[in-house]
Amino acid sequence: GGETEALRRLAAHLALDGGKWATTFEKPQTNPTSLNPHGEGTRATTVLSPYLKFGCLSPRRFWVELHEATARSGVKVSQPPVSLSGQLLWREFYYT
C-alpha cells in the first residue's frame, strides 16, 4: 500500500500499450463496467483515486508523469475534458 504501491500502479498504467492507453484515453469511449484496469479491452478507470484522496499519490506528480508519458508515446493526445489529464483536472477542481 501507500506511496510505493501508488507509484507502481501509476507507472503500470502509463506504460500500458507503450503509453498509448494514457494518451488516447477518452472517458465516454471506455466501458463503465470494466473495473479491471489491466483487463482486456477498454479500461474505464485507473483506480488511482484512493491513492490521490489519501495523499499517497500527488496530483502534481500524476500530472507531470502523465504528460511525460504522452510526450514519449508519439500518438495524438486526446483533449480535456475527456482525456485522462482532463479527468484529473475535474477531480482536483471538485476539491478546490
Could you walk me through the main structural features you see in this protein, from its secondary elements to its overall organization?
This protein has 96 residues and is mainly α. The chain has helices spanning 2-15, 20-24, 49-53, 59-73, 84-95. Helix 1 (2-15) runs parallel beside helix 4 and helix 4 packs antiparallel against helix 5 (84-95). It is globular. The N and C termini lie far apart (26 Å). 21% of the residues are buried. The model has no long low-confidence stretch (mean pLDDT 85).
Fraction of residues in H or I helices: 40-55%
Sheet with the most strands? none
Radius of gyration: 12 Å
Quote the distance from N terminus to C terminus: 26 Å
> How many helices?
5
Look at the helices and sheets and give the structural class.
mainly alpha
Tell me the β content: under 5%
Query: Segments where pLDDT lies below 50 for 5+ residues?
Result: none
Kindly state the mean pLDDT as a whole number?
Answer: 85
Shape: globular
Q: Count every beta strand, where a strand is a DSSP E run of 2 or more residues.
A: 0
Following the backbone from N to C, one meets helices and strands in this order, namely HHHHH
